Amino acid sequence: MPKLCAIPGDGIGQEVIPASVTILQAALPNLEIVEAEAGWGCFEKHGVSVLPETLDQIRACGAGLFGAVSSPSRKVTGYGSAILTMRQELNLYANIRPVQSWPRVSPRPDVNMIIVRENSEGLYVGKEQSDGETAVAQRIITKQASKRIGQKTAELVRQLGRQKVTIVHKANVLPLSDGLFRDAVRQEIERLCPETEIDELLVDVAALKMVAAPETFDVIVTTNLFGDILSDAAAHWGGGLGLAASLNWGNGLAIAEPVHGSAPDIAGQGIANPLAAVLSTALLARFVWNLGDVASRLETAVQQTLATEIYPQLTTTRAIQQAVLDSLA
Ligand code: NAD
Ligand code: IPM
Ligand code: MN
Fold first, then answer.
1. What are the pLDDT tens digits along the chain (329 aa)?
2. What is the distance, to the nearest Å, from the Cα of residue 225 to the centroid of all Cα atoms in its chain?
3. Is the distance from the beta carbon of residue 262 to the nearest atom of ligand 1 less than 6 Å?
4. How far apart are CA 262 and CA 10, in angstroms?
5. What burial letters (b/e) apply to 133-166, b meaning 16+ CB within 10 Å?
6. CA distance from start to end of the chain
7. Helix axis angle, 292-307 to 13-27, nearest 10°
8. Residue 191 Cα, ligand 3 centroid: separation in angstroms?
9. Residue nearest atom 16 in ligand 1 by C-alpha distance
10. Is 204 one of the catalytic residues?
11. Which amino acid residue places its CA nearest to atom 8 of ligand 1?
């Protein structure tokens, strides 16, 4: 029986996670759910952004669903971002961010890409120093992590029958670090999926293509920060942040998470779109629980909800939740 650790977190996480859990339970009635705490609110209450019990519960369940975190952009002593802590502590080294065109909300009809973001290193190693005059951030790329993300990409390509992988990097300026990433990823994909077309792009050109010709991308694999930025840009084609889903994935452990943040501008109003969270649970179903049929049911329900004439009038989290439940019924 699948188990899920639900962690609403901050802001609209408190609204979209309960809605998506209700929907997931309708599609998967035997799901066992435990709830846990993490985020800025958790830090204010307990002095840590992720409780050790939360990590234990995610490990015990094998799967988590995290809402969002509000992080201050100034340094707060003792605070570390909850989501970054969970990624590091649980070794969730791949971040899978699919973007597809949906009816009504997508600006164009023909986008269908998956961004595979290296999720463990690069500029996210948290090694930053400043003496007030010079600030230095380390950007670490290892062969081991690059090979690992290449392998995960190859696994996805095979499972989903994808045709082309674009490796995005900046090896013209960073030949040692991004050159290492590019070569290690390419080698693994060539080894594991010899029939797959491999393409590469510098990240600036990739950004232009993301704007001008998003339909030309199939699978993108890239380093941590480039993946962060490109996936928000790509989310535009999928109907915006309210629809953008992701899966932080390691070995036998994963946390699904909408790409959006805590949205302090709308938090508490009951108007957050829960579909990104719903689509994130579909990623858990497909990739972690191997329940492709449940994932497809959830995605079809989202598709039908978006396609209805009345979708533009569904302006509350509750109304969207109900429409998805009606589609599932
Ligand atoms: P955000 O994603 O929270 O919001 C950006 C804009 O999109 C806002 O106008 C918001 O109202 C809108 N939006 C986002 N999700 C929506 C939804 N489901 N339905 C309707 N509208 C939605 O980004 P931000 O404002 O730059 O960041 C706010 C906080 O969230 C910051 O503290 C930031 O660090 C954090 N953040 C967390 C995550 C995460 O937990 N994964 C991701 C991004 C930002
Ligand atoms: C994301 C977010 C996080 C990131 C933040 C909240 C640390 O933007 O999941 O894309 O930068 O990875
Ligand atoms: Mn981001």
1. 899 999 999 999 999 999 999 999 999 999 999 999 999 999 999 999 999 999 999 999 999 999 999 988 888 999 999 999 999 999 999 999 999 999 999 999 999 999 999 999 999 999 999 999 999 999 999 999 999 999 999 999 999 999 999 999 999 999 999 999 999 999 999 999 999 999 999 999 999 999 999 999 999 999 999 999 999 999 999 999 999 999 999 999 999 999 999 999 999 999 999 999 999 999 999 999 999 999 999 999 999 999 999 999 999 999 999 999 999 99
2. 13
3. yes
4. 6
5. eeeeeebebeeebbbbbbbbbbebbeeeebeebb
6. 22
7. 120
8. 31
9. 242
10. yes
11. 263
Place of tokens 């609204």: 15
CA dihedral 166, 168, 174, 179 (to 10 degrees): -30
- 246 within ligand 1 shell (Cβ under 6 A): no
| 293 in catalytic set | no
Indicate if 131 belongs to the active site.
no
Active-site residue, 10 included: no
| Cα distance between residue 147 and residue 166, in whole Å | 15
Which residue's alpha carbon is at the smallest distance from atom 1 of ligand 2?
259
pTM of the model: 0.96
Query: What is the CB neighbour count within 10 angstroms for residue 251?
Result: 12
